[in-house]
Protein backbone atom coordinates (compact mmCIF):
# COMPACT_ATOMS: atom_id res chain seq x y z
CA UNK A 1 0.00 0.00 0.00
CA UNK A 2 1.25 3.49 -0.87
CA UNK A 3 2.13 5.55 2.17
CA UNK A 4 0.39 8.95 2.50
CA UNK A 5 2.78 11.89 2.40
CA UNK A 6 2.33 14.28 5.32
CA UNK A 7 3.65 17.80 5.94
CA UNK A 8 3.59 18.89 9.59
CA UNK A 9 3.47 22.65 10.23
CA UNK A 10 4.45 23.55 13.80
CA UNK A 11 6.25 20.21 14.24
CA UNK A 12 8.07 21.39 17.39
CA UNK A 13 4.88 22.44 19.20
CA UNK A 14 2.44 20.45 21.30
CA UNK A 15 0.19 19.42 18.36
CA UNK A 16 3.18 18.90 16.04
CA UNK A 17 5.05 16.62 18.47
CA UNK A 18 1.94 14.54 19.16
CA UNK A 19 1.27 14.28 15.42
CA UNK A 20 4.75 12.83 14.96
CA UNK A 21 4.06 10.39 17.84
CA UNK A 22 0.97 9.17 15.97
CA UNK A 23 2.87 8.96 12.68
CA UNK A 24 5.64 6.99 14.43
CA UNK A 25 3.05 4.43 15.44
CA UNK A 26 1.84 4.14 11.82
CA UNK A 27 5.08 4.12 9.82
CA UNK A 28 3.58 1.84 7.17
CA UNK A 29 0.79 4.32 6.50
CA UNK A 30 2.52 7.71 6.55
CA UNK A 31 5.71 9.28 5.28
CA UNK A 32 6.79 12.70 6.57
CA UNK A 33 7.69 14.81 3.57
CA UNK A 34 7.90 18.26 5.16
CA UNK A 35 8.40 19.79 8.60
CA UNK A 36 7.98 23.44 9.55
CA UNK A 37 8.92 25.02 12.86
CA UNK A 38 9.63 28.44 14.33
CA UNK A 39 12.67 28.84 16.59
CA UNK A 40 13.29 25.42 18.12
CA UNK A 41 15.92 24.15 15.70
CA UNK A 42 17.44 21.76 18.27
CA UNK A 43 14.25 19.71 18.40
CA UNK A 44 13.74 20.16 14.65
CA UNK A 45 17.20 18.67 14.04
CA UNK A 46 16.22 15.55 15.99
CA UNK A 47 12.93 15.31 14.07
CA UNK A 48 14.77 15.62 10.73
CA UNK A 49 17.12 12.78 11.71
CA UNK A 50 14.23 10.59 12.75
CA UNK A 51 11.72 11.25 9.95
CA UNK A 52 14.04 12.23 7.07
CA UNK A 53 11.72 14.71 5.34
CA UNK A 54 12.61 16.35 2.02
CA UNK A 55 11.53 19.90 2.88
CA UNK A 56 12.05 22.03 5.99
CA UNK A 57 10.97 25.54 6.91
CA UNK A 58 12.02 27.69 9.87
CA UNK A 59 11.07 31.16 11.03
CA UNK A 60 13.82 33.22 9.35
CA UNK A 61 16.95 33.12 7.20
CA UNK A 62 19.27 33.30 10.21
CA UNK A 63 17.73 30.16 11.73
CA UNK A 64 17.90 28.44 8.33
CA UNK A 65 21.69 29.04 8.28
CA UNK A 66 22.04 27.79 11.85
CA UNK A 67 20.05 24.66 11.02
CA UNK A 68 22.20 23.99 7.96
CA UNK A 69 25.30 24.13 10.16
CA UNK A 70 23.73 21.82 12.75
CA UNK A 71 22.75 19.23 10.15
CA UNK A 72 26.17 19.14 8.38
CA UNK A 73 25.74 18.36 4.64
CA UNK A 74 21.95 18.27 4.83
CA UNK A 75 20.09 16.36 2.16
CA UNK A 76 16.94 18.36 2.95
CA UNK A 77 15.91 21.59 1.25
CA UNK A 78 15.62 24.38 3.82
CA UNK A 79 13.22 27.33 3.43
CA UNK A 80 12.13 30.05 5.81
CA UNK A 81 9.37 32.52 6.78
CA UNK A 82 5.91 32.71 5.15
CA UNK A 83 7.31 31.60 1.81
CA UNK A 84 8.75 28.45 3.37
CA UNK A 85 5.45 27.67 5.11
CA UNK A 86 3.51 28.20 1.89
CA UNK A 87 5.94 26.02 -0.08
CA UNK A 88 5.72 23.14 2.41
CA UNK A 89 1.91 23.37 2.39
CA UNK A 90 1.73 23.08 -1.37
CA UNK A 91 4.52 20.50 -1.86
CA UNK A 92 3.81 16.99 -3.10
CA UNK A 93 2.00 15.91 0.06
CA UNK A 94 -1.42 14.35 0.60
CA UNK A 95 -2.12 15.80 4.05
CA UNK A 96 -1.00 19.05 5.66
CA UNK A 97 -1.24 19.08 9.47
CA UNK A 98 -1.60 22.69 10.56
CA UNK A 99 -0.34 22.84 14.17
CA UNK A 100 0.88 26.42 13.95
CA UNK A 101 -0.24 28.84 16.63
CA UNK A 102 -1.88 32.17 15.75
CA UNK A 103 -2.49 33.98 12.49
CA UNK A 104 0.85 32.79 11.04
CA UNK A 105 -1.17 29.70 10.06
CA UNK A 106 -3.38 31.63 7.62
CA UNK A 107 -1.19 31.83 4.50
CA UNK A 108 -0.09 28.16 4.57
CA UNK A 109 -3.74 27.10 5.01
CA UNK A 110 -4.66 29.13 1.94
CA UNK A 111 -1.73 27.63 0.06
CA UNK A 112 -2.69 24.02 0.99
CA UNK A 113 -6.37 24.49 0.13
CA UNK A 114 -5.56 26.28 -3.13
CA UNK A 115 -3.74 23.08 -4.11
CA UNK A 116 -6.74 20.94 -3.17
CA UNK A 117 -5.05 19.32 -0.16
CA UNK A 118 -6.56 17.75 2.94
CA UNK A 119 -5.71 19.89 5.95
CA UNK A 120 -5.80 18.24 9.38
CA UNK A 121 -6.56 21.42 11.21
CA UNK A 122 -5.73 22.64 14.72
CA UNK A 123 -4.92 26.29 13.98
CA UNK A 124 -8.29 27.83 15.01
CA UNK A 125 -7.05 31.44 14.73
CA UNK A 126 -6.97 31.09 10.93
CA UNK A 127 -10.68 30.20 10.73
CA UNK A 128 -11.55 32.98 13.17
CA UNK A 129 -9.97 35.68 11.01
CA UNK A 130 -10.63 34.30 7.53
CA UNK A 131 -13.38 31.66 7.78
CA UNK A 132 -15.33 32.97 4.76
CA UNK A 133 -12.26 33.06 2.56
CA UNK A 134 -11.25 29.55 3.60
CA UNK A 135 -14.73 28.14 2.85
CA UNK A 136 -14.65 29.75 -0.62
CA UNK A 137 -11.27 28.13 -1.32
CA UNK A 138 -12.51 24.70 -0.23
CA UNK A 139 -15.45 24.97 -2.66
CA UNK A 140 -13.28 26.26 -5.50
CA UNK A 141 -10.33 23.84 -5.29
CA UNK A 142 -12.02 20.79 -3.72
CA UNK A 143 -9.64 20.70 -0.77
CA UNK A 144 -10.93 19.78 2.68
CA UNK A 145 -10.44 20.55 6.33
CA UNK A 146 -10.67 17.68 8.81
CA UNK A 147 -10.91 19.16 12.30
CA UNK A 148 -8.22 18.13 14.73
CA UNK A 149 -9.27 20.34 17.64
CA UNK A 150 -10.88 17.84 20.04
CA UNK A 151 -14.23 19.67 20.25
CA UNK A 152 -14.56 20.08 16.48
CA UNK A 153 -13.41 16.52 15.80
CA UNK A 154 -16.19 15.54 18.26
CA UNK A 155 -18.85 17.60 16.45
CA UNK A 156 -17.64 16.19 13.11
CA UNK A 157 -18.19 12.65 14.47
CA UNK A 158 -21.60 13.49 16.00
CA UNK A 159 -22.91 15.05 12.79
CA UNK A 160 -21.42 12.33 10.59
CA UNK A 161 -23.07 13.56 7.40
CA UNK A 162 -26.50 14.51 8.90
CA UNK A 163 -27.72 17.72 7.27
CA UNK A 164 -27.29 20.88 9.32
CA UNK A 165 -31.01 21.76 9.26
CA UNK A 166 -31.55 18.73 11.53
CA UNK A 167 -29.31 20.24 14.23
CA UNK A 168 -31.14 21.91 17.12
CA UNK A 169 -28.22 22.71 19.39
CA UNK A 170 -24.46 22.21 19.62
CA UNK A 171 -22.91 21.68 23.03
CA UNK A 172 -19.30 22.83 22.97
CA UNK A 173 -17.64 21.68 26.17
CA UNK A 174 -14.90 23.49 28.11
CA UNK A 175 -12.96 22.21 31.10
CA UNK A 176 -13.31 25.63 32.76
CA UNK A 177 -9.53 25.94 33.03
CA UNK A 178 -7.56 26.47 36.25
CA UNK A 179 -9.86 29.26 37.55
CA UNK A 180 -13.24 27.57 37.36
CA UNK A 181 -13.71 27.66 41.14
CA UNK A 182 -12.02 31.04 41.75
CA UNK A 183 -13.86 34.33 42.31
CA UNK A 184 -13.83 37.03 39.61
CA UNK A 185 -11.49 39.22 41.74
CA UNK A 186 -9.05 36.37 42.38
CA UNK A 187 -8.95 35.59 38.64
CA UNK A 188 -8.06 39.21 37.69
CA UNK A 189 -4.85 38.91 39.72
CA UNK A 190 -3.85 35.38 38.73
CA UNK A 191 -0.14 34.89 38.01
CA UNK A 192 1.39 33.44 34.85
CA UNK A 193 2.35 30.24 36.72
CA UNK A 194 -1.23 29.80 37.95
CA UNK A 195 -2.69 30.48 34.50
CA UNK A 196 -0.32 28.01 32.83
CA UNK A 197 -1.44 25.16 35.11
CA UNK A 198 -4.27 23.62 33.09
CA UNK A 199 -6.21 20.99 35.07
CA UNK A 200 -6.81 18.46 32.28
CA UNK A 201 -4.85 19.26 29.07
CA UNK A 202 -1.10 19.76 28.37
CA UNK A 203 -0.81 22.31 25.55
CA UNK A 204 1.31 25.18 24.21
CA UNK A 205 1.44 28.44 26.24
CA UNK A 206 -0.90 30.57 24.10
CA UNK A 207 -3.81 28.12 24.07
CA UNK A 208 -3.25 27.40 27.79
CA UNK A 209 -3.75 31.10 28.60
CA UNK A 210 -6.72 31.22 26.19
CA UNK A 211 -8.17 28.28 28.12
CA UNK A 212 -7.74 30.13 31.40
CA UNK A 213 -9.62 33.22 30.08
CA UNK A 214 -12.07 30.97 28.15
CA UNK A 215 -11.15 32.96 25.02
CA UNK A 216 -10.17 29.57 23.62
CA UNK A 217 -13.84 28.55 23.79
CA UNK A 218 -14.83 31.85 22.21
CA UNK A 219 -12.45 31.25 19.31
CA UNK A 220 -13.85 27.73 19.02
CA UNK A 221 -17.42 29.07 18.69
CA UNK A 222 -16.32 31.06 15.63
CA UNK A 223 -14.27 28.10 14.36
CA UNK A 224 -17.36 25.84 14.60
CA UNK A 225 -19.52 28.43 12.79
CA UNK A 226 -17.17 28.28 9.80
CA UNK A 227 -16.42 24.56 9.87
CA UNK A 228 -20.05 23.46 10.04
CA UNK A 229 -21.89 26.54 8.71
CA UNK A 230 -23.75 27.05 12.03
CA UNK A 231 -25.14 30.34 13.30
CA UNK A 232 -23.67 31.33 16.66
CA UNK A 233 -27.00 31.11 18.53
CA UNK A 234 -26.98 27.35 17.87
CA UNK A 235 -23.75 26.94 19.83
CA UNK A 236 -23.91 26.56 23.61
CA UNK A 237 -20.84 26.42 25.83
CA UNK A 238 -21.07 24.03 28.78
CA UNK A 239 -18.36 23.80 31.43
CA UNK A 240 -17.50 20.12 31.83
CA UNK A 241 -14.60 19.77 34.30
CA UNK A 242 -13.83 16.10 33.54
CA UNK A 243 -13.02 16.89 29.85
CA UNK A 244 -14.26 13.45 28.79
CA UNK A 245 -17.20 14.53 26.65
CA UNK A 246 -15.49 16.56 23.95
CA UNK A 247 -18.75 18.00 22.55
CA UNK A 248 -22.28 16.94 21.61
CA UNK A 249 -24.99 17.72 19.09
CA UNK A 250 -28.72 17.75 19.82
CA UNK A 251 -30.88 16.98 16.78
CA UNK A 252 -34.45 18.17 16.07
CA UNK A 253 -35.87 14.75 17.04
CA UNK A 254 -34.57 15.22 20.61
CA UNK A 255 -31.64 12.81 20.33
CA UNK A 256 -28.32 14.06 21.63
CA UNK A 257 -25.20 12.43 20.19
CA UNK A 258 -22.01 13.05 22.16
CA UNK A 259 -18.39 12.04 21.60
CA UNK A 260 -16.42 10.83 24.63
CA UNK A 261 -12.83 9.71 24.96
CA UNK A 262 -9.55 10.14 26.80
CA UNK A 263 -8.20 13.64 27.36
CA UNK A 264 -5.36 13.27 24.90
CA UNK A 265 -4.88 15.02 21.57
CA UNK A 266 -3.43 11.88 19.96
CA UNK A 267 -7.03 10.62 19.56
CA UNK A 268 -8.34 13.51 17.41
CA UNK A 269 -4.98 13.62 15.60
CA UNK A 270 -5.34 9.95 14.62
CA UNK A 271 -8.98 10.60 13.66
CA UNK A 272 -8.06 13.48 11.33
CA UNK A 273 -5.13 11.64 9.71
CA UNK A 274 -7.14 8.51 8.91
CA UNK A 275 -10.65 9.92 8.35
CA UNK A 276 -12.98 8.25 7.34
CA UNK A 277 -11.09 5.06 8.22
CA UNK A 278 -11.02 3.78 11.82
CA UNK A 279 -7.78 2.20 13.05
CA UNK A 280 -6.81 0.38 16.22
CA UNK A 281 -5.52 2.95 18.75
CA UNK A 282 -1.80 2.18 19.23
CA UNK A 283 -1.60 3.89 22.64
CA UNK A 284 -2.99 2.86 25.99
CA UNK A 285 -5.53 5.67 25.94
CA UNK A 286 -8.87 3.90 26.18
CA UNK A 287 -11.25 5.76 28.46
CA UNK A 288 -12.59 3.82 31.45
CA UNK A 289 -15.92 5.48 32.21
CA UNK A 290 -16.27 3.48 35.44
CA UNK A 291 -13.20 5.20 36.82
CA UNK A 292 -14.44 8.61 35.60
CA UNK A 293 -17.70 7.90 37.48
CA UNK A 294 -19.43 11.23 36.95
CA UNK A 295 -19.79 13.75 34.18
CA UNK A 296 -20.73 17.27 35.34
CA UNK A 297 -21.99 20.24 33.34
CA UNK A 298 -22.27 23.91 34.35
CA UNK A 299 -23.17 27.18 32.65
CA UNK A 300 -20.15 29.47 32.20
CA UNK A 301 -20.09 32.60 34.39
CA UNK A 302 -19.48 35.68 32.22
CA UNK A 303 -18.44 37.77 35.25
CA UNK A 304 -15.53 35.40 35.81
CA UNK A 305 -14.84 34.86 32.11
CA UNK A 306 -15.66 38.12 30.28
CA UNK A 307 -13.54 37.07 27.26
CA UNK A 308 -16.12 34.39 26.42
CA UNK A 309 -18.87 37.04 26.41
CA UNK A 310 -16.76 39.25 24.13
CA UNK A 311 -16.25 36.37 21.72
CA UNK A 312 -20.01 35.61 21.61
CA UNK A 313 -20.73 39.26 20.84
CA UNK A 314 -18.09 39.25 18.10
CA UNK A 315 -19.41 35.98 16.65
CA UNK A 316 -22.83 37.61 16.37
CA UNK A 317 -21.58 40.91 14.93
CA UNK A 318 -19.28 39.33 12.33
CA UNK A 319 -17.77 41.72 9.74
CA UNK A 320 -14.15 42.52 10.66
CA UNK A 321 -14.70 42.11 14.42
CA UNK A 322 -13.30 38.53 14.60
CA UNK A 323 -10.01 39.80 13.10
CA UNK A 324 -9.84 42.44 15.84
CA UNK A 325 -10.73 39.94 18.57
CA UNK A 326 -8.01 37.54 17.45
CA UNK A 327 -5.23 40.10 16.86
CA UNK A 328 -5.79 41.98 20.13
CA UNK A 329 -6.01 38.67 22.02
CA UNK A 330 -2.71 37.43 20.52
CA UNK A 331 -1.00 40.69 21.56
CA UNK A 332 -2.57 40.72 25.04
CA UNK A 333 -1.67 37.06 25.74
CA UNK A 334 1.90 37.72 24.60
CA UNK A 335 2.15 40.75 26.93
CA UNK A 336 0.79 38.66 29.82
CA UNK A 337 3.24 35.81 29.13
CA UNK A 338 6.08 38.38 29.13
CA UNK A 339 4.93 39.61 32.56
CA UNK A 340 3.99 43.08 31.26
CA UNK A 341 0.26 43.10 32.10
CA UNK A 342 -2.02 41.44 34.65
CA UNK A 343 -4.40 38.58 33.83
CA UNK A 344 -7.36 40.98 34.17
CA UNK A 345 -5.77 43.36 31.63
CA UNK A 346 -6.13 40.76 28.84
CA UNK A 347 -9.89 41.34 28.63
CA UNK A 348 -9.51 45.14 29.05
CA UNK A 349 -7.08 45.34 26.11
CA UNK A 350 -9.35 43.28 23.84
CA UNK A 351 -12.43 45.34 24.84
CA UNK A 352 -10.62 48.59 24.05
CA UNK A 353 -9.55 47.32 20.64
CA UNK A 354 -13.08 46.17 19.79
CA UNK A 355 -14.62 49.46 20.98
CA UNK A 356 -12.18 51.52 18.90
CA UNK A 357 -12.81 49.51 15.74
CA UNK A 358 -14.85 50.78 12.77
CA UNK A 359 -16.05 47.56 11.12
CA UNK A 360 -15.77 46.72 7.44
CA UNK A 361 -16.54 43.56 5.47
CA UNK A 362 -13.07 42.27 4.45
CA UNK A 363 -13.27 40.30 1.20
CA UNK A 364 -9.65 39.54 0.39
CA UNK A 365 -6.58 38.22 2.17
CA UNK A 366 -4.92 41.63 1.75
CA UNK A 367 -7.81 43.39 3.52
CA UNK A 368 -7.75 40.86 6.38
CA UNK A 369 -3.99 41.19 6.81
CA UNK A 370 -4.19 44.98 6.72
CA UNK A 371 -6.83 45.06 9.51
CA UNK A 372 -4.82 42.48 11.47
CA UNK A 373 -1.59 44.51 11.35
CA UNK A 374 -3.37 47.82 12.08
CA UNK A 375 -5.06 46.31 15.16
CA UNK A 376 -1.77 44.83 16.41
CA UNK A 377 -0.09 48.25 16.06
CA UNK A 378 -2.93 50.08 17.84
CA UNK A 379 -3.17 47.44 20.60
CA UNK A 380 0.51 47.86 21.40
CA UNK A 381 0.05 51.66 21.41
CA UNK A 382 -2.78 51.31 23.95
CA UNK A 383 -0.42 49.27 26.14
CA UNK A 384 2.54 51.66 25.64
CA UNK A 385 0.48 54.69 26.66
CA UNK A 386 -0.76 52.73 29.72
CA UNK A 387 -4.30 53.56 28.66
CA UNK A 388 -5.66 50.18 29.73
N1 LIG B 1 -1.94 21.88 22.14
C1 LIG B 1 -3.15 21.37 22.11
O1 LIG B 1 -3.45 20.41 22.81
C2 LIG B 1 -4.20 21.98 21.20
C3 LIG B 1 -5.49 21.46 21.22
C4 LIG B 1 -6.43 21.96 20.34
C5 LIG B 1 -6.10 22.99 19.47
N2 LIG B 1 -4.84 23.50 19.48
C6 LIG B 1 -4.50 24.58 18.55
O2 LIG B 1 -3.37 24.16 17.79
C7 LIG B 1 -2.53 25.26 17.49
C8 LIG B 1 -1.13 24.95 18.02
O3 LIG B 1 -1.17 24.88 19.43
P1 LIG B 1 0.05 24.28 20.28
O4 LIG B 1 -0.45 24.16 21.65
O5 LIG B 1 0.59 23.08 19.59
O6 LIG B 1 1.10 25.50 20.19
P2 LIG B 1 2.66 25.47 20.52
O7 LIG B 1 3.00 24.31 21.37
O8 LIG B 1 3.00 26.83 20.98
O9 LIG B 1 3.31 25.21 19.07
C9 LIG B 1 3.25 26.16 18.03
C10 LIG B 1 4.09 25.72 16.86
O10 LIG B 1 4.08 26.78 15.89
C11 LIG B 1 5.45 27.10 15.56
N3 LIG B 1 5.51 28.52 15.20
C12 LIG B 1 5.15 29.59 15.94
N4 LIG B 1 5.38 30.74 15.26
C13 LIG B 1 5.90 30.37 14.07
C14 LIG B 1 6.34 31.09 12.93
N5 LIG B 1 6.30 32.44 12.86
N6 LIG B 1 6.83 30.39 11.87
C15 LIG B 1 6.87 29.03 11.90
N7 LIG B 1 6.47 28.29 12.96
C16 LIG B 1 5.98 28.97 14.02
C17 LIG B 1 6.23 26.80 16.82
O11 LIG B 1 7.61 26.67 16.52
P3 LIG B 1 8.79 26.79 17.66
O12 LIG B 1 8.28 26.15 18.90
O13 LIG B 1 9.90 26.02 16.99
O14 LIG B 1 9.10 28.23 17.80
C18 LIG B 1 5.57 25.48 17.23
O15 LIG B 1 6.07 24.44 16.44
C19 LIG B 1 -3.19 26.49 18.13
O16 LIG B 1 -3.97 27.14 17.20
C20 LIG B 1 -4.07 25.88 19.22
O17 LIG B 1 -5.18 26.69 19.52
C21 LIG B 1 -3.89 23.02 20.32
Query: Between the first and last Cα atoms, what is the distance in angstroms?
Result: 59 Å
User: In one word, what is the shape?
Assistant: globular
Radius of gyration: 20 Å
Q: Main beta sheet, described?
A: 7 strands, parallel
**Ligand roster:** NADP nicotinamide-adenine-dinucleotide phosphate
User: Biggest sheet, strands in spatial order?
Assistant: 4-3-2-1-5-6-7
Average the pLDDT over all residues and give the rounded result: 96
The number of domains: 3
Strand content: 5-15%
Helix content bin: 40-55%
Low-confidence stretches: none
Order of helices and strands: EHEHEHEHEHEHEHEHHHHEEEHHHHHH
Count of alpha/pi helices: 17
| SSE-based structural type | alpha/beta
Count of β-strands: 11
Provide a descriptive summary of the structure in words:
Helices cover 49% and strands 15% of the residues. It is an alpha/beta fold and 388 residues long. The protein has three domains: 4-148, NAD(P)-binding Rossmann-like Domain (Rossmann fold, 3-Layer(aba) Sandwich); 153-317, no CATH class; 318-388, Orthogonal Bundle (Rna Polymerase Sigma Factor, Chain: A). It has a seven-stranded parallel sheet, with helices on both faces. Strand 5 (95-98), helix 5 and strand 6 form a beta-alpha-beta unit. The radius of gyration is 20 Å and the shape is globular. The N and C termini lie far apart (59 Å). The relative contact order is 0.11. The mean pLDDT is 96. The structure holds NADP nicotinamide-adenine-dinucleotide phosphate. The site of NADP nicotinamide-adenine-dinucleotide phosphate has 29 residues, from helix 1, helix 6 and helix 10. Residues 10-16, 36-40, 59, 99-101, 104, 122-125, 149, 201, 203-207, 265 line the site of NADP nicotinamide-adenine-dinucleotide phosphate.
